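ugh ok fine here u go
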Amino acid sequence: MSFSTSINISRAAALVRTYLGVTLNEQSSWGSADEALKQWRDRVEASGVFVFKDSFKQKEISGFCIYDDEFPIIYVNNGTAKTCQIFSLFHELAHFLLHKNAIAKLDEDYVDFLAPAEQRIERFCNAIAAAFLVPDGDFNVRIKEVVPVDDRKIAALARHYNVSREVILRKILDRRMIDEANYKKKIEEWASQATGGGGGDYYATQASYLGNAYLRLVFSKHYQGKISLEQVADYLGVRSKSVGGLEELVLRRTAA
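structure:
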């Protein structure tokens, strides 16, 4: 599947949703942003894309992608909120539809400083991600039911779609239900309230960073005798003594 920036955004988003096989009803049934991220990641990986996570040293970077016909790779910043990671995943996926590599930042104002051609691409990818996660037809119906909008109603819509409040507010701005000044003021207010994630089980964390698709690929090559235990550790970025714990986790997930 490949697009150009001239394609209708709603049509492009609908085609991607059909390809991934996720209905809006299924999406809204996911109980949390954490579950939504896992589900979306599984669907994208099932399409042939490897999705990795890590806590970036460059905190302003939300994600990046490396396009390749055989091994396309998306990285998302695990230091951001789960809803932000979801949006980054689909922003980067949109770049793949254009057959482009990319790096995206959290602050959308950086787009204004890009060359015109790059601005067009970044805005296209943002629009695709937003239209995919929050389809316009459904949103137009729901937004009529919550006028006038306030923080509580925005949060409810964000929970329904499992997206960030920023995504909902941008769609409200696009419909001129809020002006640019108030939009930026609210974005800055929410940004000041944001907090990062923390610790947890080592093996679960490493597995989350690497993704099920990549883990299964590495261990399958090991079981086939094509790579050694030391190579497995190298590919997974862990010490040899930690391979067993990751292997047990993979086997447990596969059996579940």
